[in-house]
Amino acid sequence: MKIVVAKTAGFCMGVRRAVDMVLDASNLSQEPIYTYGPLIHNPQVLEMLEEKKIFRIDTIPEKGSGIVLIRAHGVPPEDEKALKDAGFTVINATCPRVVRVQVIIRKYAQKGYSTLIIGDQKHPEVVGLLGYAKGNGHTITSMAQLLALPRFKAAVVVAQTTQDTAFYDEIKVWCKTHAPHYKIFDTICGSTEKRQSEIRRLARENDAVIVVGGKQSGNTKRLAQIASMAGKLVTHIEDASQIDYKTLSSARSVAITAGASTPNWIINDACSKIETNLQKLHPIKAALFLLRDFLLKTNIMAAAGAGFLTYACSVLQQTAQSFHHALIAMLYVLSMQIINNLFTIKSDKYNHPQRALFYKKNRTYLWVLAVISGGAGLYLSFITGMLSFVILLVMSLLGLSYNLKLVPIISKKGQIARIKDIPGSKTILITLAWGTVTCLLPAVANHSDLMPVAVIFLFAAGLVFARTAFFDILAIQGDRITGKETLPILLGEKKSFDIIKYALIFNIGIIFLTVFTDLLVKRAFFLAFIPFIMLLLISFFEKDNLISGAHKEFIIESSFLATGLIAAVI
Ligand code: SF4
Prior knowledge:
alpha/beta; Rossmann fold; Cobalt-precorrin-4 Transmethylase, domain 1; four-stranded parallel β-sheet; 25 helices; 14 strands
């Protein structure tokens, strides 16, 4: 069965901006924080906000204190004033595209125009827009309603930003023919238009459509309606547990899309489960998907990648005992990754629900595996030499300090913090740790020359940095919500992608330059193929969403295995 994921699935700009604003306020302020109405129509996000002590108010009290965030839909101007008058500090997170519609309505209402809003009277955005119409606003959800209205002397016509574009086109045609003096504005958001035209196409091209998102979310429901109009089987779910796989069993292809208020970790989780369950009809594919998920969840894939990369570094340095060093790196990475995942079960509930469940269920076995692999790695480094052992011990303690208060660090608030509390530390720590075990440990054991080691360290660390920062981008929404300050959260997605690309280009450059020197063996040139492929893949993933997050992770992890394989044959 073919499964495609819509490129436009997930948070739109306005929703992402509002979520970011409320999380920033929660991280920076000690005051109570409220949202006026539900921030977005997604039950999982609302549950998470309550856990972060961000509550919602639905009515404005006479007196209040703290911060109130106005969500992306906006509110009538009198509500904003009433919130301020009550004593709240107001953060207005109305989407700039909604603000544009508010401005249009206010401008023409002041000139005496009537306002026709194509949208649901009860939708919060429409309620907010009506507030700018100076009491002369009318909402329309059908042609019959439009025809029932009197012909106004002067009227402005706008649409709710998430309206169905085909319906608005009908309205516009009628107005141009029967009321050419009406001023019509294209106010349907570009993001909505793209989402709707993509789902129309996907519904035509596939046998079934799964729409992921809150049952209360207007734009998500509209996606399901549009897909149904193509006569295809459509399922609207809030998460993967609600899918009836039997009804989908006859479909040869399934398209998955999501509303503008669906976070990407819910989409990724749903895609991964749908892929695995729907492929059960094809036992080999089902087994491969299960294997992929198992290797990723247990971190065996990451550990194998570290081992293969170490092998490549050892071959480049022409050191002895390549397999021995590869094994140490594998055991170290396996142990550290499992331990850190065990410490983050609670926050992973949001951004990696499947992994969180797996770690919760198998907590004891995973602790045993982590301790045994960590201990075995230390033992192997000990028999390699005292210096190797000390370096690995220090790296292990640093790895543990990521989640535990082992190393005294003073936070902004003057308290002892963990390494994880240092903004951006995760990407840097993993890069340094992997660089050390994959390159420095073999070099120390073999007393390698400094310059070749420095070049190989930059090569290994560059690849690991690109991998880790890319995974951080994939998890950016969940990390933000759970309070992790990864590099992409600090720098933004676009800058992070740029830095990843520069790191990989730098990596290709270093290997290329060594061809003209005697620093490395000449055939090391072939390893430049790996950063080159990663550069192409990450650039493709940046633009394209048709591949699920689990696939992307697996493909990038696989490139580390390729590093070792290339080193084995050159
Ligand atoms: S759908 Fe468009 S207008 Fe509405 S919040 Fe998202 S970006 Fe803004």
